[in-house]
Structures are given as structure tokens and as C-alpha cells.
Amino acid sequence: MPRYVVEREFAAGLVVPINDEGAKACLKVVETNLTDGVTWVHSYVSTDKRKSYCVYDGPNPEAIRRVAGKTNLPVTNITEVRVLDPYFYS
Most buried residue among 56, 59, 83, 89 by CB atoms closer than 10 A? Predict the structure, then answer.
């Protein structure tokens, strides 16, 4: 399965409450992604909370855009990536 980095921009900043409401919101994204064979692996959020960089596994960029639309998440850019492990060379 291909792996992608999905860049997102949030003009007002991304706020996910650290409580049951935030957990439910994240689980809804996970469940919705499954409808198109997409898996959210993890994300990084900039310190100003205006950008996120999300690692996803999925069949193609179109599937990732489809589920983003279903969950009302913006997509600025999708880049297919491969792992570069510095310990590979040891």
C-alpha cells in the first residue's frame, strides 16, 4: 500500500480538544477513512497549529482527497513518500 504525506492548512489553527469530544472526532476520521481503504498513521502539527503533516496509507491520492471531503478536512498537498531510515546504513 502506498504511503503519503498530506499537508493541510488551517487559517484559524487546528484545535483538537484533549477530551472525549476530541477522541470522538479523531475516531470519526478513522472510521470514515476505512470506507475508501485509507489509514491515518499519525500527524505532525506546526507549533502555531496552522499546518499539519499527516502520514496516510491508501490506494491513491484520489481516495485520500475523497475521505478528506467526507470529514471536511482541507488538503493542500499530497506527496507519495518512502521511508529513509538512517539506521539502514549501519
Answer: 56
Cβ(35)–Cβ(70) under 8 Å? yes
- C-alpha separations of 49 from 30, 33, 44 in Å: 21, 23, 10
Give the start-to-end residue ranges of the domains of the chain: 3-82
Q: Would you tell me the crossing angle of helices 61-70 and 20-34 to the nearest 10 degrees?
A: 140
Please identify which residue in the block is written with the cell numbers 489553527: 13
Main-chain dihedrals φ then ψ at residue 12, nearest 5 degrees = -90, 0
- Superfamily of chain region 3-82: ORF SCO4226, nickel-binding ferredoxin-like monomer (3.30.70.3090)
Give tens-digit pLDDT for 61-83. Answer: 999 999 999 999 999 999 999 98
Return d(Cα 26, Cα 40) in angstroms, integer. Answer: 10
